[in-house]
């Protein structure tokens, strides 16, 4: 995968970085933990300039998050509550928990969106409750963009600084990303098993 993504970034430049980061946020085929360091690595070797790689990655990531925000807005809290009543076990959520989550998000939504940009899987999913909570789109995009640019910029700079050393550690990135995702899957299965309806 290392050489495939590197080749794609070399041939597609900033557009490839933008497209991969957009897709990573809509339906994560390849984690940003792999895309952006490779974009930085490629920049250090004379490819897409680092500033442009960070810009393309940040914009792609922000627009991908905005896609799920729009889904949340369109779906609406009333419809979501009906879904929770019907499919609560598989969502690992009860109506009371949904009410609590809505209250928490109303108080801490900006921080949740910002910090969610740094967590695998969460950075995709956090946009939906933001939309459901009707967070103002300007506020959502602001927190999303700041978090996205910090995250993508940090990863790209790391790849740029490492350059030759990046190939030596690249084989560790896939297993680490996989382990994090598997951890979230295990947590989900545990919640499904432990789920109980509201009394």
TrEMBL record:
Signal peptide: none
Subcellular locations according to the entry: Cell membrane
GO cellular component: plasma membrane
InterPro entries xrefs: DedA_domain, VTT_dom
Keywords on record: Cell membrane, Membrane, Transmembrane, Transmembrane helix
Pfam family name, one: VTT_dom
Protein name in UniProt: DedA family protein
Organism: Paracoccus haeundaensis
